[in-house]
Amino acid sequence: MSLKNVNTVLATACALFVLYLGLSFILAPEASTHGVGLPTWPAGNGDGFLIMKGTRELSMGLVIGILLVTGHRRALGWVLLMEAVAPFGDMINVLAHHGSIAAAFGIHGLTSALIAVTGLLTLRETSKVHQAPALAPAAQPS
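Predicted structure:
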């Protein structure tokens, strides 16, 4: 299996997972929150904040999907690297609020690492295309 195929499978998995998370937080915010690792939830109606998280996840998944479908592979690599910041920030947030260390590293940290590795592999794949030697111009008859 070529590097491009592996990257396509990984990026597709990332897009589908992020889309699933986004839709889960939008459609069933309270049901989606139990496994994120924070020790307590704010009092009152926190659905608005959870739906905002869902909207963020949904938009991130759509960006990955659009770049995959349109074939903009180099941009896909950079976007994946950028999007790895979100689960990394979630990991820091869980740790800063004395949440579950296992969830912080096992869910958010691994997700961030997987997305970042997929981005780096995609950039590696596309850098080979950019470094390919240009064809010599055809000789012009005099």
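Summary: The chain has a mean pLDDT of 87.
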